[in-house]
Amino acid sequence: DTEVTQTPKHLVMGMTNKKSLKCEQHMGHRAMYWYKQKAKKPPELMFVYSYEKLSINESVPSRFSPECPNSSLLNLHLHALQPEDSALYLCASSQGQGDTEAFFGQGTRLTVV
Amino acid sequence: GEDVEQSLFLSVREGDSSVINCTYTDSSSTYLYWYKQEPGAGLQLLTYIFSNMDMKQDQRLTVLLNKKDKHLSLRIADTQTGDSAIYFCADYPPFSGGYNKLIFGAGTRLAVHP
Fold it and tell me: What is the band of B40 on the pLDDT scale with cuts at 50, 70, 90?
């Protein structure tokens, strides 16, 4: 099983809403990632978790709050987003440090209205 | 910082070979990747090459790496309509701390026509 599962696939939220994106993998990977991809642009790294601890935060605004409740799950909590935050949010996982392969989920298409 | 560049568009006839090119700036990069993204979908890892290799072949895919020129290419033999997608070149730079902190190129849109 080389699958990374993201839910929901699509999400529309207002600027005052609070919502969460979820990501799950059962490959025993110890590193998990959030990437943001704007339309017609490449993915850009937001956060890296390693062994359930936040290892990298790429200066992401605090309205995005990641959480790793266990080694299989990664959440991204969203609050007070702006329309420019509309994008495809991709989760990925890899074995851990030094691993060569990262596996991506299908993404959550987020629209902020 | 590290920069990865790709041409934005390639159109080929079905059955022909496609060659997608990529250049990168960090000469100490350890791994270079090719990902495929179909419309509305996530990223699919196609293949990767370690920096001490010149070539890697995997079925219809051939990756060539020229470290001197910092040039990477992906050749798809016998291109099919199902190959139509955006292809991202990605770099795994050494300052990543061991994580797959990938630096992506802008992506090349491959259009396959009959």
Answer: confident
